[in-house]
Amino acid sequence: MQTTILFSIIGLLYLNSAAFAKLDMAPPNFTINKGQGNAVFVDFTSADYEITYDVKKATTTVISKIHFTNEERGFPIFDLVEKPMRVVIDGKSTDSQIIEAPRSGEDELIEFRIVSEPIDPGNHLLVIEHQIKSTQYSKGGVNSGFFMSDIGSRALLERYLPCNFEYDQLSMRFMIKVIGATEEEVIFTNGKLKQEGNNLWSIAFPNYFNQSSVYFHIREKAGTDILHFEHRSIDDRNMPITIYKTSRGDMEEYKNLTVKTLSKFENLFGAFPHPTLTIYIGGNGGGMEYSGATVTDAWALPHELAHSFFGRGVMPANGNAGWIDEAMATLVGGPYAADPNDIRAMNMSNHSVYYRDNDSNGYTYGMNFLAFLGIQFSKKNNALNMNGFLKTWMEIADHHVTTVQMLQNNLENYSQLDLNSLFQKYVFGKSKIINKFNLPNPHMKIDDETLTQIQ
Ligand SMILES: [Zn+2]
Question: How far is the CA of 216 from the centre of ligand 1 (A)?
Fold first, then answer.
């Protein structure tokens, strides 16, 4: 009973943090321009993206309208890799620029983009126009996927659209327009897709989504092999599933693997945490996760589906929490087996507060650390184990972002053990250890070459 009450309290904390105090999860604001002002993190309340594909001109133009609030006067921080053509804040034309986050110790260069105009605290409207350069056009159609990577910095939604950071969950909408296409186009997405006219679609994404959640891919229908079916979820709904591919391979095999894996995870961790599931068999040697979607090869599918629970159901609030879901997804979905006897003192979560990468030790030592903790839990009480914790974790933290401290608190509440010294040594340690296994990474590193290969 005691445990249940504790979980309820923690659950409320998650609720509050998501609904009212998003900026509590943001890194500290910092001084720029030799003390001339502060760069300030902001809270996006909504983002509308109007994306126009012009097939004849082979250009992709995006007009973004972003409503946000800030609590401190300063230059608003956001990100977009591509330099915008037009930036307007509250009706006033301005510009944007790349800035460096403050460095401490051996931190690598961490960059953000800011609006070049300081603003007072309050509600604001930011309008940005830019072009997406990576779109592929054929004679009569377009092929554009917003494929992301969490290996390396600045490779999430900011590769394609102006957006905020992982701590911020918000309502996002796309309006997609294709001009001059002679080929029939098809859209795959984890949002709610609606045809609004001829070659005109809207997509509304669930409001628990953040910068790492969105899945969007438009391509020519010809040459795309598509399978739609429904999965009877453990919560009794018929969940729509789409599997598609552009290569050879047995669709029935992918379907069977998907259903088998989903059923296993639902039995262990509860109902699939998203309205739909979209799978693109096109991982090019790996995979990448989204909220209720993945681009993957068959061998990485269980790992990527596990991420719809861990990583894109419960989402990391920052780079220092990035290892958590790799540890969890690898533990429950492979492709490697955990060795609870091989844990190392190391730094997985003691990087800069501005860290935007994902510590790759999560796949190995992070996973081993969780397996080790599971054994300690069972020693204290044989009704407890790591799968039991993960089920509880989904119940209290699903659709929320999390920090490592929140994970530690929840593990301590579940086990009634003091884990502080273990976390200090194995998670917040000082040692830098490079992943000794040198195993193939289940996440493809997306570069322009990969994008070309998988589209
Ligand atoms: Zn992963």
Answer: 19
